Amino acid sequence: MAKEVLDNKCPSCGAAIFFNPTLGKWKCRYCDSEFTLEEMQKHNNASNADYNDVKSGGNYKAEDDTNYVTYICQDCGAQIVADEQTASTFCVYCGNTAILKNKLTGEFAPDYIIPFKQEKKTAIEKFKGLSKGHPLMPRSFNNEKNIEKITGVYIPFWLYDINVSGQVDLTGEKVSSWSSGDTTYTKTDYYKMQRNLTMDFDRVPVDGSTRFDDSIMNSIEPFNYKEVVDYNHAYLSGFLAERYDINNENLFKDAAERTLTSAKTEVLSSCVGYSSKRITNNGLVAKQTKLEYALFPVWMVNVKYGDKYYTFAMNGQTGKFIGNIPIDKKRLLMYSVMVFAICFAILLAISYVMYLFNK
């Protein structure tokens, strides 16, 4: 038996309602009504109740060992298939958001969420703008089929509060030189230094899903934590969402390394007036003081070129856009031939002018 899903209805007309990033409200596409979170909650349409009554069943494993679960769309009754990490998806028949209510409860329930602030049209504009300044980008990248695939996804992040403390020993060098007659002298003085450091880092983010490239997630940071709000499933309306599949214990090392790197940079910057400096003994230790789980907004699209996928992502809050652009080898060859032809024509013209001048 398939499991049930949760969606959000317009309190005015009962149609499916979605979160509008520009308005920061829920807007009905049918009756144009707008609602705040408080108004949605008033109509019992955005409850954070714990859904532990989900019926079991509908699980199966694909040939690639991925576990899938089927759900029933409350709008059209169709079965929705999703893998174990998907928390919010779309019904392929009626297009409504299907929030898989057992995916973000209990240990998987987020503490916070940053709602989408950038609309899809902004992501599309930035994706289309890739061709500017990149004449060798494959033409297929601006294909409408690729643009249509741009999707808003809530990515799971672990947020660590970390204290870094300890003693650091350093060696600094001061180099001086002078001349006497035809001889130049150089003197290097060595200094031993010691620093005792204590630093607190708040909400160091680490991507909690194996499906997303960590380098891409790191590149679209930072997120503005001033806009963090308590998690409510209603914010997922109109977007995909993932739940974490890497435990926080396994990712603490990544967060700790980031804080330790920042702490070492701070230690080195405190030693001024030296030609060079290096750490000889690093006694810094990172300790976790608090842990939170949150969902952050990202617009994403994967484009296949050759036998490789290229991921482009935009921070759904700040609009920061990143992506690696491949070079179209055919266009590169065409441009090379064109440049060669132009240069050859210019040289030929110069040679002809010189011939006439010397004739």
- Number of beta strands: 18
Percent helix range? 10-25%
Gyration radius (Cα, Å) is 29 Å
Kindly report how far apart the N and C termini lie: 95 Å
Runs in which pLDDT lies below 50 for 5 or more consecutive residues are 1-5, 49-66
Structure report:
The chain is α+β, with helices and mostly antiparallel strands and 359 residues long. The protein has 3 domains: 3-109, no CATH class; 153-323, no CATH class; 328-359. It is 22% helix and 38% strand. The protein has 6 helices and 18 strands. The strands form 3 sheets. Strands 8, 9, 10, 11, 12, 13, 14, 15, 16, 17 and 18 form an 11-stranded mixed β-sheet that branches. Strands 1, 5, 6 and 7 form a 4-stranded mixed β-sheet that branches. A 3-stranded antiparallel β-sheet has the order 2-3-4. The chain is flat, with a radius of gyration of 29 Å. It starts with a strand and ends with a helix.
Labels describing this entry:
single chain, 359 residues, alpha+beta, 3 domains, 11-stranded mixed beta sheet, 4-stranded mixed beta sheet, 6 helices, 18 strands
List the helices and strands and how they pair.
Layout: E1 3-4, E2 17-20, E3 25-28, E4 34-35, H1 37-42, E5 59-61, E6 67-72, E7 79-83, E8 86-90, E9 97-99, E10 112-113, H2 120-128, H3 144-148, E11 151-180, E12 183-207, H4 214-219, E13 229-230, E14 240-242, H5 248-269, E15 276-282, E16 285-305, E17 308-315, E18 321-323, H6 329-358
Parallel strand pairs: 1-6, 10-16, 11-14
Antiparallel strand pairs: 2-3, 3-4, 5-6, 6-7, 8-9, 8-14, 10-13, 11-12, 11-15, 11-16, 16-17, 17-18
